[in-house]
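Narrative progress, year one. The postdoctoral researcher (J.K.) led the effort to move from monomer predictions toward full complexes, under supervision of the PI. The following entry was the first complex the group processed end to end, covering 227 residues in total.
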Amino acid sequence: AQSVSQHNHHVILSEAASLELGCNYSYGGTVNLFWYVQYPGQHLQLLLKYFSGDPLVKGIKGFEAEFIKSKFSFNLRKPSVQWSDTAEYFCAVNRDSNYQLIWGAGTKLIIKP
Amino acid sequence: EAGVTQSPTHLIKTRGQQATLRCSPISGHTSVYWYQQALGLGLQFLLWYDEGEERNRGNFPPRFSGRQFPNYSSELNVNALELEDSALYLCASSHGQGAREPQHFGDGTRLSIL
């Protein structure tokens, strides 16, 4: 069965540290990849997405993600985190032939001021 | 633009009862998705409606059902509630059917089964 793995369930960083959150999926073939974020007290919202083309995609608030097809990975990065990045981050995958999104379990990120 | 709205915010039921959750999509969105988010787990896909039709359902028993109305709002019904149904139920909407359409989420309904 298709699955999405986010290996880090909790991450704690200090402000200005660099961030990388892992996301691996088990789909074969062409995939659509998404990162969503849920800030405290807010609803889930789209951070960035990748469908095709340049494997390095940029999203809102300085986030970027790199698609590495050979590793079935779509890791989320930010060079310097801020306290306001404290949130839960979810990776999700689907295919054009199957709209159903498969979600990772999420990573809770806490940024210490 | 008003976002996706869900009601009620919280719902407390006992085992064996029935629950109805409601969702209003963003204006102009025709697709509505329902997810279950149990504690510590990611989102589990429940149902997808588009243009009033059920397009896909996840691996949940038939006591989870729903419908979409002509104004594209949607209901999720859960019959014969079990303790394990306690979870946050999220509704999302998107503009059209494309797999690449980003989904816009509501705040969810917290269902607690006593």
